[in-house]
Amino acid sequence: GVEITLSFYSFSLGLSIRSVCWKADRLLAGTQDSEIFEVIVRERDKPMLILQGHCEGELWALALHPKKPLAVTGSDDRSVRLWSLADHALIARCNMEEAVRSVAFSPDGSQLALGMKDGSFIVLRVRHVLMLKVVLEILLLKLIFLAMIDMTEVVHIKDRKEVIHEMKFSPDGSYLAVGSNDGPVDVYAVTQRYKKIGECNKSLSFITHIDWSLDSKYLQTNDGAGERLFYRMPSGKPLTSKEEIKGIPWASWTCVKGPEVSGVWPKYTDVTDINSVDANYNSSVLVSGDDFGLVKLFRFPCLKKGKAKRDISLNEDLI
To answer: Which SMART domains match (predicted)?
Structure first.
């Protein structure tokens, strides 16, 4: 009976069972798509899905909801998944036609931008929808409201040929900056249905990181050549005045290049060894992720050069 149930269920859903584990009256089945199903042997119920995740290629895309304990991820398996950080559970999923390499929430969390591997980007409208479910139990009518997440496509734009690895909405929600491996950062007006209104084109290599200023008037970028550039928004005109740059308050800090993060770089490291950083301004803390598989905490700003060590306990700049 168990064999028939699993065979029917895997056939109907197109699943590929890769491993099984049997203990007492319960059986676990793992699939090629990173799912785990539980079957109670003596019951006739369908297998229950207890775990699922991304299942193909690389996972680059990750963003936190600005107001709720939610996280979104996207990967080469062409799916976008919304996770509850409180319940550690998947609460919504949307399948795309291309691999997803970057994601970004709008400041109010109502829109979600997806950077695709083919050089396009998609914006989804994210809404909480209440669905009414009617349950009849022994002539007792119960009304149950189920909270659902609806993700509807707003636009799908392709202005570049190479992968979109970095994108961010401006703090005021007016613009979306999209950085591609082609080199430029394109600027789109949110209220004009994402009409392109600016272009930052001084980078000679692929875009790795971007940050908006607090007033949404400036943008800083890092690229694959290790160069840090500044632009006026939304036109994309280059900014070269050191005095003006010095006084810019940034809404976020994810760029890996700049004097404020010089101390996160160990001696003799390559320009690509530090993959990501993120600053918490309120706590004056900076976190980094690197090619050595380490996550490190620093005081921010971290100005001392050559002080970052792979052993977190030996670094005087580490918390």
So the answer is: WD40
